[in-house]
């Protein structure tokens, strides 16, 4: 009897372990699919074409914004990241850049130029997705107008960042990073569950 109980217990543990691995794998697959969709959207936005169909497809495929927002995470966590080999979290890095202690030097601008432009492009694409009615209704039940303003501020901050980086003006980059970061942190403080 003890042997049968031990076998049953072991089988249950193995089953539970396997189930948790497949659940994690499905979650990772969703994040990868969202990342690919966002990158394709960025590419299409950069070409200047009509992206409404792509945004609608992304909105239909993903019920939550989490896998879409995951692109901001470092590569080791399944995101895109920034910096050498994607080791840095995009959102946190942008937030630090806007801070009073961060010194923006010409070398830093040159080293981060491509990453900062990419961060702006990703943010612009994510704002275009997040402003869709499905997500606004899911997340902004208490204040739809505020949600729409945050997505508008995110787009504006992303555009400002892209333009500031292209101009290589340290003060403009810091201001744009502050504005973009503020749009994210304000929205998260009001709507993140």
Described by the principal axes of the CA atoms, the overall outline is: globular
Rg result: 20 Å
Structural class: mainly alpha
Classified by CATH, the class is: Mainly Alpha
| Number of continuous helical runs | 8
Order of helices and strands: HHHHHHHH
Q: What name does CATH use for the topology?
A: Four Helix Bundle (Hemerythrin (Met), subunit A)
Helix content: over 70%
How would you characterize the largest beta sheet? none
Report low-confidence residues grouped into runs of 5 or more.
9-25
Q: Got a strand count?
A: 0
Q: If you average the pLDDT, what whole number results?
A: 86
Key phrases:
193 residues; Four Helix Bundle (Hemerythrin (Met), subunit A); mainly alpha
Structure description:
The chain is an all-alpha fold and 193 residues long. It has a single domain, classed as Four Helix Bundle (Hemerythrin (Met), subunit A) (Up-down Bundle). The chain has 8 helices and no strands.
Short description:
With 193 residues, the protein is mostly helical. Helix content is 76%, strand content 0%. The protein is built from eight helices and no strands.
